[in-house]
Amino acid sequence: MVGELEFEKPVTELRKKISELKEFTSQSDVDLSSEIEKLESRLEKLESEIYTNIKPWDRVQIARHPNRPTTLDYIEHIFTNFFECHGDRYYGDDDAIVSGIAKFRDYPVTVIGHQRGKDTKENIRRNFGMPHPEGYRKALRLMKQADKFKRPIICFIDTKGAYPGKAAEERGQSEAIAKNLFEMAGLSVPVICIVIGEGGSGGALALGVGNYIHMLENSTYSVISPEGAAALLWKDSGLAKKAAETMKITAPDLKELGVIDEIIPEVKGGAHKDIRQQALNIEKVIGDSLKQLLELSGEELIQHRYNKYKKIGEVSFANELLGVK
């Protein structure tokens, strides 16, 4: 089955069996309702066991699911009157980043996010969600515009990382990312960042300096991919599963470390199972965050952002010194 995840196979097979029995019952005079009822009860129990004990590597696979909703999917369901803006006014446009103006519950906001494709053709156009420097400069242009007109900024993070190619380096990839970090820290409007898929390295961080950073339950946020970490640490990318467990890249781990503010629950099996419901979950968190941040002045927002990043790692470092696990 396309997009089927390894740990979900027992659930998929049981669902298939139930479906076959229902079809057989409808086409014959044999009553299998009691057997179907038992299997459905077993399915419910199996789903509960699997989806409440998801391992870090399983979450990585869900985050990478080909049908996982993208920035444009959420824009369609959460915002209205979206007007996309293109170009960085220096070099060109980058389809790996989508940015524009929209309304959130009739309140004007600026929306920026990484955008990957859902098929080969679109992935090539979007560069597989890996931005060039012009993508980050486009994002920064929209952020400064939002700051000027006092519009809150909503960022959706979903990238393996910034594009590492020669052309991107020639056009100042590192400088573009560094400038975004610097400028985002000083924005006088609310900035809410949401990791919706993979949040990889500086490519993710360039849209990730916000007053609040939220993560979908099965997303990842890390300095490097599990495969990359395994190749560096153990000279074997095949140990990616071990790396995923060691790196603390999942939402529960990052919440505990104080890196993120809130875990946004996903529908059973992952966001791709029900985009509409997942969008409602995200909308609620954005609404709650905006309500709190809109009460702060520009200076208070900057201070709020500063305090957030100053506290990251304090508890874990103190515990390490004290030997507390």
Automatic annotation (TrEMBL):
A GO molecular-function descriptor: ATP binding
A Gene Ontology biological process in which this protein takes part is:
fatty acid biosynthetic process
Subcellular location, principal? cytoplasm
Please list the reactions this protein catalyses: N(6)-carboxybiotinyl-L-lysyl-[protein] + acetyl-CoA = N(6)-biotinyl-L-lysyl-[protein] + malonyl-CoA
Q: Which domain of life is it from?
A: Bacteria
Listed Pfam families:
ACCA (PF03255)
Q: Name a GO CC annotation attached to this entry.
A: acetyl-CoA carboxylase complex
Segments forming domain CoA carboxyltransferase C-terminal: 38-292
Matching InterPro entries, A to Z?
Acetyl_CoA_COase_a_su (IPR001095), ClpP/crotonase-like_dom_sf (IPR029045), COA_CT_C (IPR011763)
Provide this UniProt record's keywords sorted from A to Z. ATP-binding, Cytoplasm, Fatty acid biosynthesis, Fatty acid metabolism, Lipid biosynthesis, Lipid metabolism, Nucleotide-binding, Transferase
Described function: Component of the acetyl coenzyme A carboxylase (ACC) complex. First, biotin carboxylase catalyzes the carboxylation of biotin on its carrier protein (BCCP) and then the CO(2) group is transferred by the carboxyltransferase to acetyl-CoA to form malonyl-CoA.
Oligomeric state and interaction partners are given as: Acetyl-CoA carboxylase is a heterohexamer composed of biotin carboxyl carrier protein (AccB), biotin carboxylase (AccC) and two subunits each of ACCase subunit alpha (AccA) and ACCase subunit beta (AccD).
Q: What is this protein called?
A: Acetyl-coenzyme A carboxylase carboxyl transferase subunit alpha
Q: Which organism is it from?
A: Bacillus weihaiensis
